[in-house]
From TrEMBL:
InterPro entries: Asp/Glu-ADT_sf_sub_c (IPR036113), GatC (IPR003837)
Quaternary structure (record): Heterotrimer of A, B and C subunits.
Protein family (similarity comment): Belongs to the GatC family.
Family annotation (Gene3D superfamilies): Glu-tRNAGln amidotransferase C subunit, N-terminal domain
Descriptive protein name: Aspartyl/glutamyl-tRNA(Asn/Gln) amidotransferase subunit C
Keyword Ligase among record annotations: yes
Species of the source: Cohnella kolymensis
Coiled-coil region(s): none
Keyword Nucleotidyltransferase: no
EC annotation from Swiss-Prot or TrEMBL: 6.3.5.-
Keywords (A to Z) from UniProt: ATP-binding, Ligase, Nucleotide-binding, Protein biosynthesis
Swiss-Prot/TrEMBL catalytic activity: L-aspartyl-tRNA(Asn) + L-glutamine + ATP + H2O = L-asparaginyl-tRNA(Asn) + L-glutamate + ADP + phosphate + 2 H(+); L-glutamyl-tRNA(Gln) + L-glutamine + ATP + H2O = L-glutaminyl-tRNA(Gln) + L-glutamate + ADP + phosphate + H(+)
Gene: gatC
Length: 95
């Protein structure tokens, strides 16, 4: 697969970028170099290799939830710019 100037122009249009002819040629060359390098992966023998999402084995390192008392509402709202009925009051975002 190769990237031509039309492909670069299409991607630039989607990204709302204005490119000069020199930039288009430069990006086409760079993208083709990236694809050529990625094609080297097809040369690797991956038979018998199990697919992974990480190089190292991953395990859940989160602690179990523990029930504990909440802070008093007066302490929570002490630094609030405005409060109403024990809740933070914020400006309306919808009209």
């Amino acid at each position: 697969m190769t990237i031509n100037l039309k492909d670069v122009e299409h991607v630039a249009n989607l990204a709302r970028l204005e490119l000069t002819e020199t930039e288009k040629e430069q990006f086409a060359g760079q993208l083709n170099a990236i694809l050529k390098y990625a094609e080297k992966l097809n040369e690797l023998d991956t038979d018998g290799i199990e697919p992974t999402s990480h190089v190292m084995p991953m395990a859940n390192v989160m602690r179990e939830d523990q029930v504990r008392p909440s802070w008093p509402i007066e302490k929570v709202l002490r630094n609030a710019p405005d409060e109403e009925n024990g809740q933070f009051k914020v400006p309306a975002v919808l009209e």
